[in-house]
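Hello,

Our lab assistant flagged a job as stuck in the queue for most of the afternoon. It eventually completed. Since we weren't sure the result was trustworthy after the delay, we are filing this so someone can double-check. Below is the sequence as submitted and the structure that was eventually returned. Let us know if re-running is recommended.
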Amino acid sequence: MSEIATNRKAARDFHILEKYEAGVELRGTEVKSIRLGKLNISDAFARVERGQVWLYGCDIQVYEKASHETHEPRRSRRLLLHKREIMKLLVHTQQKGLALPVLRAYWKGHHIKIELGVGKGKTHGDQRQDLKDKAENREAARTVANFNQKQRR
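-- returned structure --
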């Protein structure tokens, strides 16, 4: 599986409770554009509507070499999931404070997959605490590396 795009904002803004893998219903020019790396999922999220899951905010730029027929860059796209997964997502989204952010897009064989997360929004205090923890871990790793380097000498 090779990574196409990652949504780092989702990890910053949400506590991810569960992850789901979904296929995406795409047009030919969209796939060609994704192969060129013109995919942006930083604002992408999913919604369950009428028994189907839809992807919103995913930006796939227009393929320049396309003939007369191109796609809309920010159109909503249907996500392909099993019915029981859709029902689970519906139950999750009906709870207050839970959302379905897109975490990453990747190739699985010849198919493009989207990883959805069931996320609970972080408060500013949570985000600050995460930054503090990350800085402490980085400092501890730096101290261990310096100690190990002194031991080798």
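-- support follow-up --
The delay was a queue issue, not a problem with the job. The result is valid. The helical segments are 8-13, 28-35, 83-94, 124-152. The chain has a mean pLDDT of 89.
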